[in-house]
Amino acid sequence: MVTDTPFCIDARDLSFAYAKGPPVLDIPELTIRSGERVFLYGPSGSGKTTLLGLIAGVLSPPPGTLSVLGHDIGGLSSAARDRFRASHIGYVFQMFNLIPYLNVRDNIALPVRINSERKKRLTGRLDEEVASAASHLGIEQLLDEKVTRLSVGQQQRVAAARAILGSPELIIADEPTSSLDANRRHAFLDLLFANVADAGSTLLFVSHDLGLADQFDRSLSLPELNRAGE
Amino acid sequence: MLLLHLARKSLTNRLLTTSLTALSIAFSVALLVGVENVRTGMRESFSNTVSGTDLVVGSRGGTIQLMLYAVFGMGSPVANISHDTWKEWDEHPAVSWTIPYALGDSHRGFRVIGTNDSFYEHYKYRGGQPIALAEGRAAQSVFDVVLGAQVAERLGYALGDRISVTHGMSAVGFMNHDEMPFEVVGVLEKTFTPVDRAIYVTLEGVTAIHMGWESGGPPMPGDEISAADVLAMEEVPVSQITSFFLGAESRAYTLQLQRDISTSEDEPLTAVIPGVALSEMWRGIGYAEDGLLVISGFVVLVGLLGMLVSIYTSLDARRREMAILRALGAGPRRIVSLLVLEAGTLSIIGALLGVAFVYVGLAALQPWLEGQFGLQVPIQALDGMQLMYIGTVIALGFVAGLVPALKAYRTALHDGLSVRI
After folding, report:
1. Whether the model pTM is above 0.90
2. d(CA B255, CA B360)
3. pLDDT digits (tens, 9 = 90+) for B88-119
4. How many domains does chain A have?
5. Which of A5, B46, B91, B320 is most buried, by the most CB atoms less than 10 A from its CB?
6. Nearest Cβ partner for B2 among A89, A96, A113
7. Cβ of B325 and A97 within 8 Å?
8. Set of chain A residues whose Cβ sits within 8 Å of the Cβ of B12
9. Residue A75 included in any domain
10. CB contacts, 8 Å: B328 with chain A
11. Residue B420 within any structural domain of the chain
12. Do the Cβ atoms of A174 and B417 come within 8 Å?
């Protein structure tokens, strides 16, 4: 189900409530253009997790209220949303991004293994692409390490490499720097920006650290967007 | 492919827990399959107690009773068969051979059986194995004695030892035939059948023991017959036997012979086909092994429960893993499949390991089982029943994986991308 919109993310009257609960999210309008790097200020309790879950298609919004990359998320089946997420979205968590029993190489390759459409987007062979993503993030020497041996900063870079593999249109980063110290935070952001720019992806970066906001094209405040919390 | 890869990595990552779980399944499968093997072995051993014999014949009575005293050396016959009647059947054109048995005497608790050369030639057990002499020779003259393997072992007799034989079955007969010294001339090979627990003399030997006892009591003073007297006789007359084993010229005659013998006008006789009687008897006593099977079934259930618990308790630690997989686009179904696959893999490994345990265990214990219990547990390919057991265990393993998987499914749906630590 494709909708006609110039936006990468286009939410109109988007509301969501968990079963039997009060609405946790009620957003009259939220639009993000393709290729934008957007900082979304979201302290805990502002509905951040719910919004990201909706955009990533883990949660199901009412039909017609949320379009991502031209797809009406609410109109997709749960399996279609899973496929959509796997092929179009790169996701970086705050911490513990990695599957503990896979090595760095296998962790980076995982989204491509899960989804064949994501694999089609690769320009080269999988192991070359993995190596290239790793070298973009300065972790090429760690490819065969166990992820449990890595520092937090290294783990986040592995997660970022995984997110950009196959150049998905949208990269969602959920406080990816909050577990890093100030120096590493900036180094990580620089790497992320460079790679997002290379891939031509849209970046939605969520954080409660307003000090990072000025490095982005635009910044939004979820508490201001979301009427449900009022 | 991806799921297999993930399941393998995930299982090897938790190697200790995984191996313990697989081991516990392996042990329960080994028990289940092993018990079935032993059951088969016992049934085979039992129904092959005597083989190659087409009919067992005794005086008219119950078939079970006849089998008990003629084959298993338990209980006593009600009446005897006259020597002439036996000879008549022995010479019957449809009869290939007969082995006469004259029972009723004992030596220190072991049965004394009077028989003839035919015994050494035709008696077969367990798939047609003939009995053989471990040392010495068959009993030929009146005072020759051949010992069953177990008798020789227990009583510690050697060739050349002289023994006496009691009239009646009590271990300490007060009416000892002390005046008749028998001499050990041979010892039989072990057969692990009741053959091992008896002492074999000639038919004439049994007759000689009873000379002078025709009145039912010890001979009056002066009427005793000494060994020298017996040896001086040209021929010791045999007038009665107790039962005989019969081999027909052809299997096809068996039923006809059985009918003829059972309905014979001369003397009331009963003839049984040993194979049929033995399997009838097994049906009566074999149920004890069913209990064993039920118990090992429960052991399997406990093993699978252990696996269920171990997967279930690992779920909380794996919630983050589920969230990551979901963020990367794995649907909840894939997560369910992953956990079910892990459980299934565990039970397959456990089952295969269990089967290996059975074969290794059998190879190691077979001689001991045979030596100690006379139990021949064959090492052979798994039969249909055992394959069914193993298949059931594996299927139950997958089902057991479904329980934690469905919980993970709900958790994954509920947690979404929020990963609690």
Report:
1. no
2. 44
3. 999 999 999 999 999 888 888 888 999 999 99
4. 1
5. B320
6. A113
7. no
8. 101
9. yes
10. 85-86, 91, 110-111, 114, 162
11. no
12. yes
